[in-house]
Amino acid sequence: MERRNRYSLLLLAGGKSARMGTCKAELQYEGKTFLQHMLDKARILGIEKCYISGYVSRQEDVTTVLDHFPDRGPLAGLHACMKAIDTPYCLVLPVDAPKLPVEILEALLQAHEQREDEKVLIWEHGVRQEPLIAVYPTAMADAIETMIRDHAAPVFRAIDSWGFDSFRMEMQEEQIININTPELYKKLLGEDIDTAKEKETIVLRRIRSGEILDAKDEVALEHHFTIHLHNGGHVDAVCSPTYVEEFTLGRRYLLDDLMQKEYPPQPGGSLSAVEIDTILRLTSELFDTPGDLFQSTGCAHSCAMVTDGVVQCYREDIGRHNALDKVIGFALKNGVPISKSIVFSSGRISQDYLEKVIKAGFKIVVSRAAVTASAVALARKENITMLGFIRRSGGNIYHVGEVALF
Hints:
By secondary structure, the chain is of the alpha/beta class.
């Protein structure tokens, strides 16, 4: 069977691009939109039929497909497009990977063409498996529908249930990164940002299927330095080596070491209420797709600040406290009103973490992870609105304080 009759392109462009702040499919790179870059790859591969989920395309050569089950994550997009596709297989790709080498995709398709089973074939490199850079049988649609009819589910749960194999091929990390934050987009365009090296590649030995093999992997770096305080004291600090200025500013603020002249006055006003569905949506969009450092190394926490529905900043670090410090430093440096903002964390909320949230001036904190009993007691004492275990499908409300939920 000719490739054009065997495969369709299934592009995933779902979500509200919370971290990016704008539609990723329309971002420009080297004179073309991200969408056009992915379509060009499909043409080179001999794939003619293209479907996109999560973005209404105005191009005549792309079929837009709306989710049958909204708010069910990437599987909803896969399901809806598979229902519309009339080829037996589809090449699934994210729209936000414009530098993804077509050589990888050609090799992936060639490997799939040599197979006789109906398993999903996903690309693997380093220690990462990419379930959204893969070849899927469109016959999976009904199985996915059963899984997501009532609630969202992880992509790996679906392919584990169906059956999958990996196709291994290495490539430079910068060519496969998902451009999902303004910082990564600026880096793609070669603009001046904080590009301090936060990871390095090491040689190791990997255990796989009972064998010990030589391999390479990326590991997170630590930046050790000393913060000198105005009172003559000092603090030894360790963080990821990016946004160190923000980290230092936030840490010194929490240590009562900053003078007012070192940062703009905080705007007045406070946040009075937040819609629960907004919190659920933002948490999903901020954390369902991890940031670059976590994707590369698996060694990072993240923290974000949202004001008036807009993501002001998203920071990763090897420590969850550090990520919070960087967010606080960003807010102080740029005059963003902390008292009118929501702080989102990928990590657990312990008492010492919540103490920093409160001292910074936040009135509401949302975590994707757990909270401790001491944190709950402190939130109730200080009248802080605190939510935990938040996913798009729901979560826990531990206390409603000054910021009401509706």
